[in-house]
């Protein structure tokens, strides 16, 4: 009889024994903002084996370790959907500027630029370990460069097929989608049908299309319409990157650009946007130069710069663009990183022109831009461009389908004069726009940083404080959380975020980076282990 009853006793006892095992960690006494947008509640959060296993009232005796979150907000770790960390993450796997800003997951490979071989890239990161979770898009510029170099023309049928094959392989290697940078070379040379066909390949494997659209200034509406057209024709969800209005004559028109997105959604197209909460952008100096002048490789570009007639044509187009944006000079363009002469870092083109004793005119400054590019051997010169209005930033932030993103890489503390968004994007939203200006409520801001991006990029077990989800968790003081990085003093970590857990492991503990590397690689739906 006892032998027959023994299996029943075992089945009854095992759940009790499991329940009796202490949790790895319990966060107690905090105000939980779960990522859904619902109001905060007092609750404890229990973690076991890197996962959230319980949210509710949990006795401290049930935990191997307890974090007292009295006075703190407990939220899902922030998901930054727009980063550029190729190279910089390998150099600094701790990603301190992101981690101290509450970021636990990043999507890289944006603006058309990614690793060319994602499987190798992922293997490298897996072997060295990283402090954050990471997913990657496959970049159109990267793909086009590999097949067509810097050719300023449409692809042949064979070249199109080869590019589609590269996108397909990247999706199998784990890409979460396709990105474009249609303002950059060589992506700017692509017409819409080329992109549609590549997006169709990404769509076939469940991917997303993320786009730095073709124009964010004078022709921003047409560029948004192109992204929507690609969504329609490729049947793919679209994420419009760093949504903005970057032209003085159009300041205040963000209500119209947002309406374009909303109209697409009413049509049934899955279009969303992301934004960094600043009135300045950051990209390369070459973005000022007409794209045709940058075609066909460095030798051809330098020849154009040196030829007086061609140079005059380039300069004339630059000055025309300046006038259309109601600018008298290039004082809005500030050097972030110029390797040939680091004393230029932090100075505007106008200030450098004056410092060099050159003629004080827009024409002389346009020539200076070409000279700086030549002296840098056409290597990337990172800039900060003050081109937006605060009104538009706030209008876009109010839009419910706007996510928060930094558009940054892993910053090296003290190196250059980077955009402050590299350090303080999320804290700026929480401090300036939630606490001080009350543009959006706290719970809504956290939804935009967590469950909305997780839904957009199909991260199935991230973005919410819910049993069964990965224990990516941020603890912060909503009364003091602040961005400290400024344009003049950009190297400053966020304050007020005291704990950051990645997959249940504290990476920030009492405001200090622990050096732990518990981050995981996150693959798209098309991922194949073969």
Q: Which key features would you list for this structure?
A:
9-stranded mixed sheet, globular, 6-stranded parallel sheet, alpha/beta, 530 residues
Largest sheet at a glance?
9 strands, mixed
The total beta strand count reads 21
Uncertain segments are 6-18
Rg of Cα set: 25 Å
- Provide the helix percentage: 25-40%
Strand residues, percent: 15-25%
Mean pLDDT: 95
Number of helices: 17
Q: What is the overall silhouette?
A: globular
State the distance separating the first and last CA atoms.
52 Å
Structure description:
This protein has 530 residues and is an alpha/beta fold. 36% of the residues lie in helices and 18% in strands. It is built from 17 helices and 21 strands. α5 (140-148) crosses α6 (157-172), α6 (157-172) packs parallel to α7 (192-204) and α7 packs across α8 (220-234). The longest helix has 19 residues, at 2-20. The N and C termini lie far apart (52 Å).
Describe the SSE topology.
Elements (H helix, E strand, L loop, with lengths): L1 H19 L4 E8 L8 E8 L2 E6 L9 E3 L4 E4 L1 E3 L7 H4 L4 H4 L3 E6 L9 H11 L4 E4 L1 E2 H9 L8 H16 L4 E5 L10 H13 L3 E5 L7 H15 L3 E3 L13 H14 L3 E5 L4 E5 L13 H9 L1 H17 L8 E5 L11 H7 L6 H14 L6 E5 L3 H9 L3 E3 L16 H16 L5 H8 L1 H6 L16 E4 L20 E6 L2 E5 L2 E2 L17
Parallel strand pairs: 1-4, 1-5, 6-7, 7-8, 9-10, 10-11, 11-12, 12-13, 13-17
Antiparallel strand pairs: 1-2, 2-3, 5-18, 14-16, 15-16, 18-19, 19-20, 20-21
Helix pairs in contact: 5-6, 6-7, 7-8, 8-9, 11-13
């Amino acid at each position: 009889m006892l032998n027959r009853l023994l299996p029943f006793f075992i089945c009854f006892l095992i759940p009790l024994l499991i329940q009796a095992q202490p949790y790895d960690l319990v966060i107690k006494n905090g105000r939980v903002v779960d990522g859904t947008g619902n109001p905060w509640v007092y609750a404890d959060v229990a973690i076991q084996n890197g996962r959230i296993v319980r949210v509710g009232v949990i006795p401290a005796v049930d935990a191997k370790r307890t974090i007292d979150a009295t006075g703190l907000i407990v939220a899902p770790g922030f998901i930054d959907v727009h980063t550029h960390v190729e190279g910089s993450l390998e150099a600094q796997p701790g990603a301190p500027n992101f981690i101290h800003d509450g970021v636990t997951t990043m999507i890289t490979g944006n603006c058309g630029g990614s690793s060319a071989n994602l499987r190798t890239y992922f293997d490298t990161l897996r072997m060295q370990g990283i402090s954050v979770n990471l997913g990657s898009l496959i970049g159109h510029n990267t793909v086009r460069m590999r097949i067509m170099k810097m050719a300023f023309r449409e692809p042949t049928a064979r070249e199109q097929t080869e590019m589609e094959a590269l996108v397909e392989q990247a999706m199998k290697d784990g890409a979460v989608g396709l990105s474009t940078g249609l303002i950059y070379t060589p992506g700017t040379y692509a017409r819409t049908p080329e992109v549609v066909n590549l997006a169709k390949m990404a769509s076939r494997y469940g991917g997303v299309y993320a786009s730095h659209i073709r124009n964010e200034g004078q022709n921003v509406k047409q560029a948004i319409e192109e992204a929507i057209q690609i969504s329609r024709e490729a049947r793919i969800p679209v994420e419009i990157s760093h949504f903005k209005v970057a032209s003085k004559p159009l300041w205040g028109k963000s209500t119209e650009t947002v309406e374009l997105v909303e109209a697409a959604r009413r049509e049934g197209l899955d279009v969303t946007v992301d934004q960094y909460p600043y009135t300045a952008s950051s990209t390369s100096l070459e973005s000022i130069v007409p794209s045709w002048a940058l075609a066909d490789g460095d030798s051809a570009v330098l020849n154009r710069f040196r030829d007086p007639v061609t140079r005059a044509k380039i300069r004339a187009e630059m000055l025309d663009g300046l006038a259309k944006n109601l600018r008298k000079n290039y004082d809005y363009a500030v050097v972030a990183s110029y390797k040939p002469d680091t004393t230029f870092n932090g100075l505007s083109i106008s200030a450098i022109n004056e410092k060099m004793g050159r003629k004080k005119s827009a024409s002389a400054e346009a020539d200076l831009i070409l000279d700086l590019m030549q002296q840098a051997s056409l290597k990337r010169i990172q800039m900060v461009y003050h081109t937006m209005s605060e009104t538009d930033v706030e209008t876009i932030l109010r839009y419910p389908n706007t996510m928060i993103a930094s558009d940054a890489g892993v910053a090296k503390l003290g190196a250059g004069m980077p955009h402050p968004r590299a350090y303080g994007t999320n804290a700026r939203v929480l401090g300036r726009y939630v606490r001080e200006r009350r543009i959006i409520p706290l719970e809504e801001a956290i939804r935009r940083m967590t469950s909305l991006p997780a839904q957009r990029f199909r991260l199935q077990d991230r973005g919410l404080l819910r049993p069964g989800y990965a224990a990516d968790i941020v603890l912060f003081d909503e009364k003091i959380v602040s961005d400290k990085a400024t344009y003049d003093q950009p190297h400053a970590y966020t304050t007020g975020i005291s704990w950051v857990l990645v997959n249940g492991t504290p990476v920030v503990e009492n405001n200090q980076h622990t050096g732990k590397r518990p981050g995981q690689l996150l693959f798209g739906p098309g991922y194949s282990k073969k």
